[in-house]
Amino acid sequence: MRTYNTSGGNADSNQRARIAASSLRLVDIPIELIKKLYNSHITKLHGKLMKILIRNLARTTTETELLTLFQAHGAVQSCNLVLDKDTGLSKGFGFVEMPKPGEAKAAITSLNGLAIAGFKIRVKKSE
Q1: How far apart are CA 67 and CA 80, in angstroms?
Q2: DSSP category for residue 101
Q3: Which residues in 1-127 belong to E strands, given as ranges?
């Protein structure tokens, strides 16, 4: 992919940069780059992300259920349920990242010890 220096130079190089940017479609941008830029933007707005570890989840718990559980307490940056490579089933733990430390602490306090699908989950700040 070509990049253009638009900070200096002549009008011709600036024109080429505008043309290149205007012809860029969303599908041309890798999803990993979009996520990285979004995470960087959120971190700049709200400060450091707080990563939370959730253990003792039922093997039937889905990532969507985990996300919904934490979204009730605030904005969630990411949610990852750890899966077994061979079976594709949950290993019983996961991670959630929340951009606002106050909301993250409230979620930890509220959810730690809560019974979900017959399992008393343990929630704490990841180290």
Answers
A1: 9
A2: H
A3: 50-55, 78-83, 90-98, 115-116, 119-120, 122-125
State the Cα–Cα distance between residues 55 and 126, nearest whole angstrom.
11
Cα distance between residue 50 and residue 43, in whole Å: 10
Residue 80 CB neighbours (<10 A): 14
Q: Report which of 101, 52, 100, 56 is spatially closest to residue 80, judged by C-alpha positions.
A: 52
Residues recorded for the chain: 127
| Residue 111 structure tokens | 């959810």
DSSP string, 24-37: --GGGS-HHHHHHH
> CA distances (Å), 55 to each of 9, 18, 33, 48, in order?
55, 49, 30, 23
Look at domain 48-125 and name its CATH class.
alpha beta
Q: What is the pLDDT of residues 69-97, one digit of tens each?
A: 999 999 999 999 999 999 888 999 999 99
Q: Is the pTM of this model over 0.85?
A: no
